Amino acid sequence: MSPTEILADPLDVMARLLAPEGKQNPYPLYEEMRAHGPVVDVGGVHVFVTGHAECARALRDPDLLSTDAAVQDVKLPGWRDHSSWYWLTKNMLFSNDPDHERFRRFFGSAFAARSVAAWQPMVERRAEDAVRNVAALGASGETVDLVPEFTFRMATGVIGELLGIPDEDHAGLRTIVGDITLALEPIGDLAQLVPGDGAMDRLAEYFQELVARRRATPGPDLTSMFIKARDAGGELTDEELVANLMLLLVAAAEAPQDLLSNMVRLALEHPAKGAELRDVPQAAAGFVEEALRYDPAVQALNRVASRDLEFFGVKVAAGVPLTLLIAAGNRDPRRFSEPHVFDPSREDNQPLTFSGGMHYCLGAALARMSAETAVPRLLSRLPDMALVGTPTFRNQIVQRGHDRLLVTTG
Ligand code: HEM
Q1: What pLDDT digit, counting tens, does each position of 20-54 carry?
Q2: What CATH fold (topology level) applies to the domain 10-408?
Q3: Ligand 1 atom closest to the CA of 93, numbered from 1
Q4: Coil, helix or strand for 406?
Q5: Tens digits of per-residue pLDDT, 353-373?
Q6: What residues flank ligand 1, with Cβ below 6 Å?
């Protein structure tokens, strides 16, 4: 940008990001924000972070807190009357130490690399089920919406089986899970929380019943395993158990389905790269990583300064919120050459999409394995699949994914 060009005010850029057009294509707006630098101070009351190294450092800084109950008391007075955030602040994602460390110790080992590797046959079975479903629906030439029929079915099939949620309940959970993610969007008015509140109440009731059922009749699932560990003296209340089970379902259903639909769209929009993904098994890992970088399912993360500090030369007072625009960090030209080009053969590709530091995504290995398994299988089974119309995205900025993804299967 030349010195004579006038920079748009960061708050104006943010306002345009929150408008429907901004949510459909936020990437040019991230560049407008980046023009102010990798760390953008807005009058000492808010900080936006656009740089890759700066986001990575923020995620590992113990003085930058996740939005727990104490933080929310300052940021969003009145939140305690809303069940969405009541439950969210009881899970590990919206906790800080010592609670976070206690939760991570309790739930973390279930997702260790060895467990995830043992789930591969189950993931393949679920991928086969989702692919067969699309093939059957598309066989008569009808248009198929991949979001409910492939991506949600796959993502919920995997986490549902792990948590012991019966298959017949999966479809009913789709709207509930989607509505809960609305509570994670920037909140201007507490009324925005109402859809998330209703959904959270229904999901809490569902999991309270599931926990009661599995306590009476344990199965081979993680819910039964967590109940057993808690009842044997594990450091966790029953409410915290339910809150974290809900987190596991929502986290493993929503972002993974967005990753899957973004991957299918990218494969169809870039036919040569899609063919490689379909035909060369070794290409899958690079394709997944680049989809995570180029069009991430999670675009932004929030942190709050726990004390007065200096962050890359910017003075940040205690209580000031930082918005880490990780999707902008993923396109930082100082870190990635040709950042706006979708290139699955990139070397040393380290997107910020699974976060970093102590909140690093617990399901990253499972999400990668599921995506590497399901999407090539879909493309091989249905090589003539084609997009119908221009895909659109949900009206959300934090959690980005297609609302519908219409295809014909050939
Ligand atoms: C493409 C798929 C996924 C993406 C992009 C994603 C992204 C993220 C991000 C960005 C965070 C950290 C947020 C922060 O630092 O504030 C996170 C945390 C978390 N994710 Fe994922 N996730 C995905 C899949 C999954 C799956 C499959 C599971 C469950 C098996 C899962 C479970 C969790 C949990 C439990 C946390 C909280 C970790 C903590 O606070 O210590 N995620 N995820």
Answers
A1: 999 999 999 999 999 999 999 999 999 999 999 99
A2: Cytochrome p450 (1.10.630)
A3: 40
A4: strand
A5: 999 999 999 999 999 999 999
A6: 66, 92-93, 104, 159, 247-248, 251-252, 255-256, 259, 297-298, 301, 353-355, 359, 361-363, 366-367
